[in-house]
Write a structure and sequence with these properties.
With 755 residues, this protein is mainly alpha-helical. 58% of the residues lie in helices and 4% in strands. It is built from 26 helices and 9 strands.
Length: 755
C-alpha cells in the first residue's frame, strides 16, 4: 500500500502545481496570450514550421524529452534509497525542470522559433552564442551515438519488441499523409495503429513474427546502430507532418495506455497482492506489494557520494538541459497558440516527473514481486535435478541451515525452504538445490546420482522476491549501473505490476520493451533534427556576410535578427533585409571549397550529424579490440560526461532565460535559486568525477582517462567563460531592444503583454 500512496501522493502534488505555480509562471511572468501570433503561423513552410494542434504538439514534445532518461536515471539513483530520488523528482520537476522547459519554449516563441543557443547571441552577445552552440553540438553528438546503442540493446534484450517498433514507422507515415492531405482527425487512425502494434506484441511469439524477432535480435550491434542512424537521417529531413508528428502522437497514446496499465496494476497489487506465486507444490498465493528498498542508503557498495552525483544521475524527470533544445528547436516551430505553451512546456515536464515516480515505484516495490537472476549472481552452486519418480527425499548431506529451491517453470519460479528428510512431490519433476557448497554430484553414492544423474544441468536463473530481489539487483554500483541492469530493473518491476492484472509475463515484458525503445527512438531522431538546426546556425557564422547584414559599428552578423532590430553587441541598427534572403546571399557568395557552405544546408548539416555520430558509435567500448561484434558501443566512451554536461546545459539555458526576463522587465526572483543550483551542482559533480574521486571510484585523472579529463576541462572552462560573459553583459545592462523585448509577430504599437 505504501508504494501506491507514494505514487498517488506525488501525482496529486504535480497536478496541484500545474494549476497553481504553473499557471502563475505562464500568465503572470511570461504573459502568454491567446491571440499572440506564433512562429509556426508567421513562418509556416510545410517542413519545420507547421501550426499544429495542442495534443499533437504535446505528444511530440513529451516523447522527445522523455526517451530513456526518466527511466535509467531513477532506476540507478534508488541505490541511495527511494526518499532522495522521490524528493529530487518532485521538487526538481515543479520548481526547476518545468520552469526551465517553459522558459526555453517561450523565449523561442518570442524569437522566431530559433534555438536557445542562437538567441543567446542576440541577448548576451556573439561570443556567448558561439560557446553555447559549441556545447550543444557536443552534447547532441553524444546523444545520437549513445541512443542508437540504447535502442539496439533494448530490442536485443527484449526481442518481442522489435517487430512492433519497426511496424510503427510505416503506420506513422501512412497516418501523416492521410491526415495532412485529407484533413482528418489524427486520433482514430492513431488508436488503430496503436491497437495493431499491441496485437503484434501479443502475437510476437507466433510464427513468423517469433522467427523475425529472434533473427533480428541476433544481428551485430553495429548493424543496428547504423540502421537506426540512417532512420534518424531520413526522419529528420522529412517534413514534420510525415513521420515526426504522427509517430510521436502514437507514442503519446502508448504512454497514456502504458501509464494506465501501470497504475491499474499498481492498485491491484497494492490491494490484492502481486501475481500468483507458488510457495509450495500445488499451493499458490499473491505476494504482498511493499517497498523493499531502504528509505536512505548513504554508502552503497562502490557508489560515488550521493551529493552531488544524485543530481546528475536523475536528469530527465527532474531537470534536463536537453529539454531546452527540444523546446526551442522543434516544439516552438509547431505551437499554434501561445497559451498552449503551459500545457506543452510545463505540463510535459510534470508528466515526465510522474513517469519517473512510477519508475522509482517499479524498482523499489515492483522488483519485490519477482526478479530472475542467474545462479552466479546469487552465490553458491545451483543445479536442476530431474527425478523420474516425481519425488525426492533430501539427502543427509544437506545441512539444517541449507535450503532447496523448488522451481515451477521459467519465468514463474518461486522460493521454497525444505529441511533434510522432507519428501517433495513434484508437479513438474524438477527440484533445484542451492547449498552453500556444490553438491557431490561426482559421488556415486549420492542419493541424487542414484536417482538420475543424466538430467543434471545448470539453470538459466532463479526468481527472487522481496528484499532479496532488491538487494541482488542493487548489490553494488557496478551491478546496478550497466545499461541492461538499469533498463531491466524498470522493465521487470513494471511488468510485475502489469502481470498483477492477469496479463502473461511474456506480453508484459514485451510491452515495456516497446515502451522504452519507442521513446528512445523518438528522442534519437528529434536529436538528429536538433543537431541539424544547431549546425546550420553555427555554420552561418563562417559564411561571407550577406549584403547589408553585418553591423556597421562592430561587424557582428545580424542575419539571424528580426528586420530593424538593434545589434546585440553595440546597439547599432540592423539594415532591413529578410533573413532567408540573407542566408541565400551568404551561400551564393561562399566559395565551393568552404565546408560551411555545405553544412548550412539541410542535408549537409544532417549528414554531418549522422556521420560523426556513426564514427563515434563504431568505436569499440573501452578495453575492447575492434571487431564486428564489439563495434557500436563507442558512445560509452564519452557517456560518463553526459550527466554533468547535460545539467550544465540546463544552467546555461537558465542564464539566457534570466537575461531575457531582465531585458523584458519581468519578475525573476523565482529563477535565481534554480539557476544557481544548475550552475554549481553539475560543475561540482564534473570536478569530482574528473579530478577527485575516491577509492572505489577513481577519478578520470587518476585512472588515465585522458579524453574524459580533457573534455571535462574544456566543458568547465566554457561554462566559466560563459558565466563571466553573462555577468559582464548584465552589469552593462541589457537593453530591451537587444532582442529580449521583441514580441515576434505583434503588430506595430501593440502593448507589451508583461508591462
Amino acid at each position: 500500500m505504501n508504494a501506491l500512496l507514494l505514487v498517488l501522493g506525488v501525482g496529486a502534488a504535480l497536478l496541484i502545481a500545474y494549476f497553481t505555480y504553473g499557471r502563475w509562471v505562464s500568465r503572470r511572468v511570461f504573459g502568454l496570450r491567446e491571440d499572440a501570433p506564433t512562429p509556426a503561423v508567421l513562418h509556416e513552410d510545410g517542413r519545420d514550421y507547421c501550426p499544429t494542434k495542442r495534443g499533437i504538439v504535446f505528444g511530440h514534445h513529451f516523447t522527445s524529452i522523455a526517451g530513456t532518461g526518466p527511466i535509467v536515471g531513477p532506476a540507478i539513483a534508488v541505490i541511495w534509497g527511494w526518499v532522495p530520488a522521490v524528493l529530487w523528482v518532485l521538487f526538481g520537476s515543479i520548481f526547476i525542470g518545468a520552469v526551465h522547459d517553459l522558459g526555453a519554449l517561450v523565449v523561442s516563441l518570442r524569437n522566431k522559433g530559433r534555438s536557445i543557443g542562437d538567441i543567446a547571441g542576440d541577448i548576451l552577445g556573439p561570443r556567448v552564442r558561439l560557446i553555447f552552440l559549441g556545447v550543444l553540438i557536443m552534447g547532441l553528438w553524444i546523444v545520437l551515438a549513445i541512443f542508437g546503442l540504447v535502442i539496439a540493446s533494448v530490442m536485443r534484450l527484449y526481442p518481442g519488441s522489435i517487430f512492433p517498433i519497426l511496424l510503427q514507422i510505416p503506420l506513422a507515415v501512412i497516418i501523416g499523409i492521410v491526415v495532412h492531405r485529407q484533413g482528418r482527425s489524427i486520433l482514430i487512425p492513431s488508436v488503430v495503429a496503436l491497437v495493431v502494434m499491441y496485437l503484434s506484441v501479443i502475437f510476437g511469439n507466433v510464427w513468423p513474427l517469433s522467427v523475425f524477432n529472434e533473427v533480428a535480435a541476433g544481428l551485430p550491434l553495429i548493424l543496428w546502430v547504423g540502421g537506426l542512424l540512417v532512420y534518424a537521417y531520413i526522419a529528420s529531413v522529412l517534413p514534420v507532418w510525415v513521420l515526426l508528428q504522427p509517430r510521436d502522437y502514437i507514442n503519446s497514446l502508448q504512454l497514456i495506455s502504458c501509464l494506465g496499465l501501470l497504475v491499474a496494476g499498481l492498485i491491484v497489487a497494492a490491494l490484492f497482492g502481486g501475481y500468483g506465486q507458488t510457495v509450495a507444490p500445488e499451493s499458490m498465493e499473491r505476494l504482498p506489494l511493499e517497498i523493499v528498498a531502504p528509505a536512505l542508503n548513504m554508502n552503497p557498495e562502490g557508489a560515488p557520494p550521493m551529493f552531488p552525483i544524485l543530481f546528475i544521475t536523475i536528469a530527465c524527470g527532474a531537470i534536463s538541459g536537453f529539454h531546452c533544445l527540444v523546446a526551442s528547436g522543434t516544439t516552438s516551430k509547431q505551437v499554434s497558440c501561445e497559451r498552449d505553451a503551459q500545457v506543452v512546456g510545463y505540463g510535459s515536464m510534470l508528466t515526465e516527473g510522474f513517469l519517473a515516480t512510477l519508475v522509482i515505484a517499479a524498482c523499489v516495490a515492483g522488483l519485490g514481486l519477482g526478479l530472475v537472476k542467474a545462479p552466479d549472481r546469487i552465490g553458491g552452486a545451483a543445479y536442476y535435478i530431474s527425478l523420474p519418480g516425481g519425488e525426492v527425499e533430501l539427502a543427509d548431506h544437506v545441512s539444517e541451515d541449507e535450503q532447496a529451491i523448488w522451481v515451477q517453470d521459467n519465468p514463474g519460479w518461486a522460493l521454497v525452504l525444505f529441511r533434510p528428510g522432507q519428501r517433495i512431490e513434484l508437479t513438474r519433476g524438477i527440484v533445484q538445490m542451492r547449498p552453500r557448497m556444490a553438491l557431490p554430484l561426482d559421488d556415486p553414492d549420492s542419493a541424487f546420482n542414484r536417482a538420475n544423474t543424466a538430467n543434471v544441468h545448470v539453470p538459466s536463473g532463479v526468481q527472487l522476491t522481496g528484499n532479496l530481489a532488491y538487494s541482488k539487483q542493487y548489490e553494488s554500483w557496478s551491478a546496478a549501473g550497466s545499461l541492461g541492469s538499469m533498463v531491466g530493473a524498470f522493465v521487470t518491476g513494471a511488468a510485475n505490476f502489469i502481470r498483477s492484472l492477469g496479463i502473461p509475463i511474456e506480453i508484459a515484458l514485451a510491452l515495456m520493451g516497446v515502451f522504452v525503445a519507442s521513446f528512445a527512438a523518438t528522442t534519437m531522431d528529434t536529436a538528429c533534427r536538433l543537431q541539424r538546426y544547431v549546425i546550420q546556425e553555427l555554420s552561418r557564422t563562417f559564411l561571407p556576410p550577406a549584403a547589408g547584414r553585418n553591423c556597421a559599428g562592430c561587424g557582428y552578423d545580424l542575419s539571424g535578427l528580426e528586420v530593424g532590430m538593434a545589434c546585440p553587441e553595440c546597439g547599432s541598427g540592423a539594415p532591413p533585409v529578410d533573413g532567408s534572403l540573407a542566408l541565400k546571399s551568404q551561400r551564393a557568395k561562399a566559395s565551393s571549397l568552404n565546408p560551411f557552405k555545405w553544412l548550412s544546408t539541410t542535408h549537409g548539416a544532417t549528414l554531418f550529424a549522422v556521420v560523426t555520430a556513426a564514427g563515434l558509435a563504431s568505436i569499440p567500448a573501452p578495453g575492447q579490440t575492434f571487431s564486428i561484434e564489439s563495434a557500436g558501443q563507442g558512445g560509452l566512451i564519452l557517456w560518463p560526461l553526459f550527466g554533468a554536461t547535460n545539467q550544465i546545459l540546463a544552467g546555461l539555458a537558465f542564464l539566457v532565460i534570466s537575461a531575457w526576463l531582465i531585458a523584458t522587465k519581468r519578475p525573476r526572483w523565482f529563477i535565481v535559486i534554480p539557476t544557481a543550483l544548475m550552475i554549481v551542482l553539475p560543475a561540482w559533480a564534473l570536478i569530482w568525477q574528473a579530478f577527485v574521486g575516491d577509492v572505489q571510484n577513481p577519478s578520470w585523472l587518476a585512472s588515465g582517462r585522458w579524453l574524459l579529463v580533457g573534455t571535462a576541462l574544456v566543458t568547465l572552462a566554457l561554462e566559466a567563460w560563459l558565466v563571466v560573459e553573462v555577468v559582464a553583459r548584465l552589469n552593462r545592462g541589457v537593453d530591451p531592444g537587444d532582442g529580449g523585448a521583441r514580441f515576434d509577430g505583434f503588430p506595430d504599437g501593440e502593448e507589451c503583454p508583461a508591462c
